[in-house]
Amino acid sequence: MIFAHISDTHFDGGERARLRARRVMTWLRGMPLDAILVSGDIADHGTEAEYEEARSELVAEVPVLLLPGNHDVRAAYRKVLGGNGAGDGVDQGAGGEPINSVHRVGRVLFALCDSSIPGRDDGLLAPETLAWLREVLAGADRPVFVGLHHPPIRLRHPLLDSIMLGEPDEFEELIRRSPGVVGVLAGHAHSAVASTFGGRPLLLAPGVVSTTRLPWATPGELTWANTVDRTDPPGVSFHVLDDDGRLATHFRIAPEPA
Fold first, then answer.
1. HEC states along 130-142?
2. Cys-Cys link to 229, which of 3, 72, 208, 211 (CB 3.0-4.6 A)?
3. Nearest-CA neighbor of 191 among 171, 203, 173, 207?
4. Model pTM?
5. Taken in order 13, 17, 19, 24, is the CA torsion positive or negative?
6. Alpha helices of the chain — where are they, by DSSP H?
7. How far is Cα 58 from Cα 253, in angstroms, rounded to an integer?
8. Can you tell me the distance from the alpha carbon of 255 to that of 133, in angstroms, rounded to the nearest whole number?
């Protein structure tokens, strides 16, 4: 089982975001992948036009699985993307409810959670989302990857740590008590990060639209104005799940188009 994991495309109607996403997707198409996961901030302003753009660019021969981030707007996301046409257990919510979806791809299950709080940059798994995830994990008949946008740990970055997932303890305990969970996948940080959470791998995909500078590698004080690096190439995580259940992750940058 091999799948690509990308995040933070931030489609905004402009050429730059579109071309960076196209660069990644063009490289991924034709690879022997089982799926592609995009872990949130699909759009930059959450408009229907931005989701139409995403729908035209985030396509491949394999399922492309999406979940929302803090820049996404649930009503417009649902109207244009719906359950994004992948898997057999798409989001059945409506209006402003969290967009949670489950997808069966090959021999694994993707449980994708909406960690966004409308109108805010930080995240939270609402009680109904945790209840939904608990039910999904209890009934899972195959290995599960749990996806969300907001990382549930501190990254030791003063700006990012102010907008992480809030109140992660119940979520962590649920992961710890669910032996079928292979790993937790997130985005939001615009940085490739490997850690652990609830005794499982926690893997953050690098950003497509930009990269976050690190405080110990950046002269001077980081601010929201200078922490974003728009010159780094877009990155991709490749997750490989062996038959014995061992997970390996490779981080790569997408090459310039030929």
1. HHHHHHHHHCCCC
2. 211
3. 207
4. 0.95
5. negative
6. 15-28, 48-57, 74-81, 127-138, 169-176
7. 17
8. 36
Whose CA is closest to 39, among 127, 125, 106, 116? 116
Cα(108)–Cα(1) distance, integer angstroms: 8
Which one-letter DSSP state was computed for residue 105?
E
Nearest in space to 10 (alpha carbons), one of 78, 84, 70? 70
Amino acid at 182: V
- How far, in Å, CA of 174 to CA of 36, rounded? 25
Nearest residue to 211 (alpha-carbon basis) of 253, 239, 250, 183: 253
* Residue 166 to residue 153: CA distance in whole angstroms: 9
User: What's the Rg (C-alpha) of the chain?
Assistant: 17
Helices vs strands, H then E, count in the chain = 5, 13
Q: Is the pLDDT of residue 3 over 70?
A: yes
Length of the chain in terms of residues written:
258
For residues 191 and 210, what is the distance between their CA atoms, to the nearest angstrom?
A: 9
To which residue do tokens 């409506």 refer? 94
Instruction: Give pLDDT tens digits for 58-70.
Output: 999 999 999 999 9
Report residue 206: phi and psi, to 5°. Answer: -65, 160
109 has which bridge partners? Answer: 104, 144
Domains of the chain, each with CATH number or no CATH:
2-253 (3.60.21.10)
β-pairing, 211-212 vs 35-39, is: unpaired
| pLDDT score for 91 | 57
Strands 235-241, 247-253: pairing is antiparallel
Return the amino acid letter for 49.
A
Q: How far is it, in rounded angstroms, from Cα 97 to Cα 119? A: 14
